[in-house]
Amino acid sequence: STWRKWWRYSLVIAGIWMALNCLWLVPTLAGNSPASDVINNINSYQLNAFATKPTVASSVPLTTLLLHGFWADDQGRYDIPADIWLWWVGAALVICVVVLGIIRIVRGRDKLGITLLTTGLIGWYLSMGVAWVGSAAVTQALTTYMPFFGGFRESQKWLMLLVLLYCYAFVQGDLWVCEL
Known about the structure:
mainly alpha, 0% strand, flat
């Protein structure tokens, strides 16, 4: 039928697009590219230079939970949302809905939600990098022994996993509130 042809053509086009966009991986994985040279030469000096900054209550875990701590936060280049009192009002509302969503996920044994909860917690832990004593040794070991982990020298990149959890949990919390 027409739909099957459309899906078949779409999958072929998507496969070709993926193959063309992943060609850069071949020399990088072989170790013959400028990108692989840079990644392989990441050291503790660079990890410390790009470390998460504890900008909220001088706490790295709290700072990362609130999606702050970018390495340039303490350089005065821009206003940090946490420094504006109105931000805390909005953040408190969002946090309450996210917590309700996490409760709903766990109580309902939502498989996708629990997967996102697990990956979100892992992302939160890794986002603290060398800035927090509880994750510094793991970050150093992963950078030393895991190929391409050095590409995450700015550990805040791991917060993307926490953001995915927050988005899903917010929707679940919102649904729960709407059902009440």
